[in-house]
From TrEMBL:
<keyword id="KW-0996">Nickel insertion</keyword>
<keyword id="KW-0143">Chaperone</keyword>
<dbReference type="InterPro" id="IPR002639">
    <property type="entry name" value="UreF"/>
</dbReference>
<protein>
    <submittedName>
        <fullName>Urease accessory protein UreF</fullName>
    </submittedName>
</protein>
<dbReference type="Pfam" id="PF01730">
    <property type="entry name" value="UreF"/>
</dbReference>
<dbReference type="InterPro" id="IPR038277">
    <property type="entry name" value="UreF_sf"/>
</dbReference>
Length: 238
């Protein structure tokens, strides 16, 4: 559900850097789209996945074998919000997002995701997170917390983050370039094994100190985001 494009958290309005790449001529067909997506999931996507997994673990995510129920949600430990573990994760993700435009986008998406998660599955831990970070947590932190509240494990949170990193731009490519949706989904299918591998690697960081989480950079996405933010006419918010 968290990885579904119909989840009302605002992701459909963002291209994940794809619109700027299309205008720059770097993406024009399924082949160049695949190259763009592989680069994105291995850099910013992998970083987001590690933070989502860590946030889920901090929130109290359960082992994968114990997931599957939306009832009887456990209460979050009070020490993981604000100045605690989730607060540290939010601060460290901020440091790994050098572009102001991307920082603003991440917090907006995190705020919308947290609002949606609180509506579909009320949980005191999510309320505490919203109160501690009124401007909105960064999206991966919100995603991990939402996954934990829904009794998912860190691997599921990481997989959802990577799915979002790939499918968001892929969907935008259909709208921007008029690509065959079947060809685009074939690209996503070819990425499946990479996404599984990256999700497993991200899960390995779930309990690591926040400062030691990955910081895979994507300078071209940072630069493109700043340029995109100056456009007067654009189809996507980012």
């Amino acid at each position: 559900m968290l990885a579904d494009g119909r989840f009302p958290a605002g992701g459909h309005a963002h291209s994940g850097g794809l619109e700027a790449a299309v205008v720059a001529g770097r993406v024009s067909d399924p082949g160049t789209l695949e190259a763009f997506l592989r680069g994105r999931v291995a850099t910013s996507g992998a970083t987001a996945a590690a933070f989502a997994a860590a946030a889920c673990a901090a929130f109290g995510g359960l082992p994968e074998a114990e997931t599957g129920s939306f009832g009887g949600l456990p209460e979050a430990e009070t020490g993981v919000v604000g100045e605690g573990r989730l607060g540290a994760l939010d601060t460290e993700f901020e440091a790994r997002t050098p572009a102001p435009a991307l920082r603003a986008t991440s917090r907006k998406l995190g705020r919308q995701l947290l609002r949606t998660a609180r509506a579909i599955g009320p949980h005191p831990g999510l309320d505490a997170l919203a109160a501690a970070l009124p401007g909105g947590p960064h999206q991966p932190v919100a995603l991990g917390a939402a996954a934990g509240a829904l009794r998912l494990g860190p691997y599921a949170a990481a997989a959802a983050a990577l799915h979002d990193a790939a499918t968001g731009p892929a969907t935008a490519a259909v709208r921007l370039l008029g690509l065959d949706p079947f060809a685009v989904h074939a690209v996503l299918a070819r990425l499946a094994s990479d996404l599984d591998r990256l999700a497993a690697a991200a899960t390995g960081h779930a309990d690591a100190p926040a400062a030691e989480l990955p910081a895979y950079g994507a300078p071209s996405l940072d630069i493109s985001a700043e340029l995109h933010a100056t456009w007067e006419v654009r189809l996507f918010a980012s």
